[in-house]
Amino acid sequence: MTTTAAFTDADDPIRGISHPGGYWSRANTAEAASDILSPLCWSFWSTGAEWAARAGLSDMGLLPRSEIRMPTGPEESCLGCFYGRQALNVDFSRKVMASMPGADADDFERDLLGTVRPDAPHVPTSLRRAPVIALRAPATVLGHARKARALHTRHLAWWQDATSRPPLSPLDLLIDAVVHFRRSLRPQMVARSLITAVHATFTSLCAKAERPDLFAALASGFGGTPESDLAQLLWDVAKGRRAGEEITTWYGFHGVHEGNLTGISWREDPQALRTCLDSLAVAPTASSPQARAGTATRHHETAVTTVYRRLGRRDRAALVAVSAFAAIPVRSLQQTKEASLMAIDAGRYAARTLGRHLVDQGTLNDVEDAFFLTLDELRRPLGPGTAELAAFRRERHAAYRSLDLPVTFTGVPEPFPAREAEVTKGELTLTGISASPGTVTGPARVMHTWSDTPPNPGEILVCHATSPSWTPAFTVAGGVVTDVGSTASHSAIIARELGIPCVVNADDASRLIHTGDTLLVEGDTGTVRRIADTGKDG
User: Fold this and answer.
1) Global confidence as pTM
2) Of 199, 213, 241, 277, which is most buried by a Cβ count within 10 Å?
3) Contact criterion met (CB below 8 Å) for 98 and 84
4) Domain boundaries, position 184
């Protein structure tokens, strides 16, 4: 019989490879897939995201059509996977974004990481593709909002149908889910490109007005995102105004580690929402999503007025135009993100169904073993040794959970033992990135997954990173602090839309801060201060 000792690194698709000198970042990918990726998770992401990213960039004219293909090596890859963690190829992205009018490579890196490396390779702003961009980008941008809404509607109907009955062929559904995933990520890449350009313009205008502190407020209060609608639905259900079944009908694809196929969705475990709804039930009216959205809108309007008065005529016109346009990519980004999560949940449903079939056939020992085979392997006849291969990969997967990686790294990273929460005493000051304006003081609530005990009304959510499934916690929290992220990350966007002070990229916050610590969060300056400690574990 084949044993796990017979397998090597070559049989482990999530260990990772890199080109020499390749610079990678997990700043935003930690949000997209928060848990350790399984081989099936990674093949789902790599198969869907690589093609979709290139297609979206080509739609904007930033890449030629010939580049809509799978990469031949890691230096051409948009994404990599290292010890089960997804990472973005920063240098590849810098080269592409240098063709974006109004932005440059440094703008992209700053938007992603919050800062630019001192030794970042110089990528000259190129006008070579300007004629193509001038031809393709306007048409793409003009139809972008409509296409994003239509895609969300189609994907929702498909997801509701696909997960409501046993699939005739779980393998066919899994492959169909990858196709839907690709389709959702293509316009998502367009939205991210547009947000980069919008944020670069806001940053430039704030600098000219000598008010860089107003960037977060300028980027706030657009409304109309799916998370805003979900927050209002959760509020109404908690207050007894709407039926709880509506949450799983319209948003059941969210859940614990929702970006991983191995996660558990609300569709599978609706009881996971109960604790959060209990917290919302006692929240004061002033904490309602509608009231908070009003605060965000006022922040935006005040910032626009302040910056406008300090600019010249031409820059004033640019401020008005970009402020009017900025809501479009913010809304479509969240719509397409939800569509991608629908595809992941359908793939999750298909994989678990397929796993049950393979267990019944004696090919696998456990339903969850299906997640430890790749998409290509599942599409081929599975021979002897499949169960042992899955067991080997499960062992590796479990081992990677005890390791951690830097947020940014060069080449294949050197993992280190995952650090536990520290029992720290006294005052503590952390500096991150200003993501959403406002100042709040309150007790901390440290969460490691969204299903942990949620904040009580007014408590400050402290976590590693967030995804749309964290919206219930945002709805009740008084402020948000994350370890990683940027001004374009999920936590930043949703905090701004809900009018919650937020600091992102406050490295190690969830390890150094403990539940019950009293925090002062200054969203305008990106500072988090602990002004009283409890000495309890986070």
Assistant:
1) 0.92
2) 199
3) no
4) 4-193+330-400
